Predict the structure.
Amino acid sequence: MEAWSAPHVPTLSPAAGQVLVHDTALAELLPIAPESGEARMYVCGITPYDATHLGHANTYVAFDLLHRVLLDAGLRVCYTQNVTDIDDPLLERAEATGVDWRDLAQGQVNLFAADMTALRVLPPRDYVGAVEAIPVVVDLIESLKLTGAIYQVDDPQYPDWYFEVRRAPGFGRLSKLTDDEAVAVFAERGGDPERPGKRDPLDCLVWRLERPGEPAWESRLGRGRPGWHIECTAIALQHLGADFDIQGGGSDLIFPHHEMCAAEGAMATRQPFAKVYAHAGMVGLDGEKMSKSKGNLVLVSKLRGDGVDPMAIRLGLLARHYRSDWEWTDQALTGAIGRLDSWRAAVGRGAAAPAGPVIAALRDALRTDLDAPAALAVVDGWAATDGDDPAAPAALAEAIDALLGVALAG
């Protein structure tokens, strides 16, 4: 699967420094400092329907910010993202709308790519759909079978394949939920804790055998399709290897998705799945989390269609710390538009306050757990200050583009 085109990223003068990111498992800041000089990052992609709402955009802009900060720190970034282009929610939406599931998925993938391009999000190096990854998924399941952690439920009609989560070292360390809490969240987020024949309510589906009317693929496991969690585990291990640097996504993926991926990966490789688990907060609307199930969505494409500058949308997202839960409002958008106008006016001046100290402060804020609100405040202060350095406006425009992904030309 091809990703969207990459925007140009200006190269700034090098500056030493360490990038620190909050790790959900340990609840502390950890350095991203691979000895190889290459940071390996996996961010879970969309299930392609209702793309791209601002909850999606908040996550991908947050990890785009991390991508840019890592590049600025002199690291190469090996970035992988999946697309869950076969799963129950997609099939349910296709049936409800009367659209072929393949057409629905492709149309939404195209829309997502257009939105990411408009928001100047750097594309992943490896952009992999679940369907194209089926051979890799099957290989991983077969490998896990050798550990004894894969079994079939005792169901004469649909003996689906499951992963026995309790066999995995460290299971539960990421989410830190009690068993009762985990079962409740599992049921809420696509799990099947009450399925008869499972060894544990939290065991997760890895291969669903064919049902009438559903798409399915031939495999050594029987004709069927992959489960959600094993898809990401297989893609990440294939393209990044074990113990990669950053597993990212929205905070709603902590459990069960990232917990299950970590368990499967650790069981398969006998190494940690990832070093750092980083999570973006949830975006709400009218007092509730913005979600496809509730239908309370603000779509990037709708905002763009209404004439909103994508750079204002990006600034609206960056105005909250990436780990925060917050609410999108008309006032948030109005404030972002005003900020964009102010910054563009400042870089359009013939001279301004020196750029060096501002760029250094930007880097300090962003390298400390992506403190975008602090970075925005730094630029606000510079924009409101007079100066006589004729090189400063262009230098700041390049730094804002490189570090924050906000293009001020236009």
Remarks:
- The chain has a mean pLDDT of 96.
